[in-house]
Structure formats: C-alpha cells, structure tokens
Amino acid sequence: MSKRVRRRRLAVAATMIAVALAGVVGPAGPAGAATSVNFGPVVITGVPAAPPVGTPATQKVVPLATVDTQMTAGTTAYLYSELRAYDADQVNLIDNEVRCSGAGSSNVVMGENVLPSTGDPAHQDITIVTRFLVSATTTGTMSCTLYLRTASTSSFTAKETVSGTLRFASTAVGEDTDGLAMQKSLPAGDIPVSTSATTPVLDRDVPSGYTQLAIIADVEYHRCAGTQTCSATYSTARFSLTATTSGATGCATAPVAQTEETVARGVNHAAIPLYTIVELRPGCTHVHAQVTVTHLGGDVGSIGGAAPGLTDSTGQSGSTPNHTSAMTHMFIVPS
To answer: Is the pLDDT of residue 209 over 60?
Structure first.
C-alpha cells in the first residue's frame, strides 16, 4: 500500500470520526487539565540495537503525551491517538502504546516498522493509530499517556523522529443495554490466516434513541504465523469490516470498509485501521460487526492478540514491572 493511500485512509477516518462524534463529546476536564495534546517533532536517539539471536530485545520506552479528564463511575471515554515516525536510520520498531489509569484503566498498543531512506518509500514515513474505549470504575481523574516503544532490528544503535497527537475524542460514549462499553479485544495469542479468519466479532443490543453507530476496528497483522515457513518474504491480505443491524423491518447494513495490505520482510507487521458507519432505524437496536481477514498471497500471516510481558519502562520483554496491552480490537460509538 502506498503512503498516499494509507494517509488518505487515515485522514478520511479521522474526518468521519469527528462528524460521528459531534454532539456526543462530553464535558471538558477541570481547569488546567489537558484533554488534547499535540507533540513533536522529537528526535529519538539511542534506539537499542538488536541483540544476539536467542536474547530478548530491549525496547526503549518514551512517554510523549498525557491527557487527563474527570470521569464519573460507569461512564465511558474514547481515546484517540496518532504517532508518526520518519527519518529513521535503520529498520526500527515503532509501537504506539496508550495506557490509562486512575478512574479507569486500559492498555492498548499498535505498531509496525519504519524503514530508512534506502527502504520502501511507503514505509519511510508511517502513522500508527491507537484508539479505544475505557470505562470509569470509580469517580475521579482518568489519566492516559502515549508511549513510544522502539527498538532497532539491526546490529546498530539507531534513531528516528516522531510526532503526533493524543486526545479524549469523547468522555460520554453511549453503552449497550447492559450499561457496558461496546468493545472487544483479542486475548493473547496470534491467529493464523492461511485462508481466512473472522475476528474480532461484536454482537450488542443498543438502547433506543441513537440514529447511527460508528464501527471502528484496528487489526495488527504479522507477515508470518507461528512455525510456518516464510519463504515468500511477503504476505498479502484483505481486511474487511462489516456491520449489520436487526430487530425490525428494513434495518440498515453498513458500507463495507475494506483494504488490502502487503507486508514485506523488514516491515514484518502492520497496523490496519478500519472504520464504517451504519444507520440505526427505528426498532433496529441489535448490531453485529466483524472483521474478516483473507489471505491473498505470499506467506501465511497472522492476526496479533494481546501482548503480554511489556515492560513499563525501557527494558526487555518479561522484565518487571510489566503489563499486558491489547492489540487487535473493535469498538462501537453510538450517536
């Protein structure tokens, strides 16, 4: 996929989200609290070199932005972030991780590799979106921080430049009829895609009074799967987000959000953002949404589940303290 196509897809998604959320954005946080932050450009140096084979890699973890807002127990917020990376001098891992704590807690990470000037032009300048819902379990301040997680895949210490944004897109996201956030994240463990795989799937009943649903899914796709032989040096797959509503006559179906991605050796994995909107007609209060990933060519790929053992700060996987962050996930924002 070309850089131009990817950037257009991200821009369209951001515009559609803004339109969908106009009128559901909650109240601003207390005086002095930042609910939206832009950062960068920041030059990141000392990106750890790849270790000898068999030794866990060291990831450099850099906090780049923090937002805060007041939440009431039982309410749900929508976090949206973009992390742009470019001017790398090696093939570097770029993870956009957002961790929330306080009134509500959640961790989500999406990532792929950025390439140097000698690499594929489409991956010399990348933007990774990490977005998700987080519900408040207590009344108080919710604080969310965007972290860059980065490491070189070469034997050289590396650098790159990053910039981006982090914001509460809403602090009053509607929930399902049980009062739960409409969100599904995959557990730890990758899912092979030799032909096709349908995951995640979200089935919910929505309270009456809403007129449309924004369906948002982010898929972490890896070029290889488990013990598979990856001799083709690339994997091409199609990603399709579909959504239907039911419960009455003449219920609407969302336009299919679909894209194809070729993940080459060196890039290794890709963060795939998907977005669509479905109309909620009277009585049509049940929604079924799903992502189908279809293998089109090259190596067998896989869908990435939650990432366990991520260090809280710079360190090797499994070092303490550590945590688990969701990866592939889907959520729904009603309006």
So the answer is: yes
Residue 82 backbone dihedrals phi, psi, to 5 degrees: -130, 135
Three-state DSSP class for 21? helix
Cβ atoms of 271 and 285 within 8 Å: the answer is no
Nearest residue to 247 via CA among 203, 192, 277, 291: 203
What average pLDDT does the segment 134-155 reach? 97
Question: What is the edge-to-edge ordering of all strands in the sheet holding 286-298?
Answer: 196-205, 286-298, 234-246, 257-264
The alpha carbon torsion through 278, 203, 194, 258 (nearest 10 deg) reads 10
Residues in Cβ contact with 205 at an 8 Å cutoff, skipping those fewer than 6 apart:
176, 177, 178, 285, 286, 287
What are the pLDDT digits (tens) for 248-306?
999 999 999 999 999 999 999 999 999 999 999 999 999 999 999 999 999 999 999 99
pTM for the model stands at: 0.91
CB-based contacts of 14: which residues, under 8 Å, 6+ apart?
A: none
Residue 33 confidence class, pLDDT cut points 50, 70, 90: low
Determine the Cα–Cα distance for residues 175 and 28; give it in Å rounded to an integer: 20
Angstrom distance (rounded) from CA 235 to CA 222: 8
Counting Cβ atoms within 10 Å, is residue 31 exposed (0-12), middle (13-18) or buried (19+)?
exposed
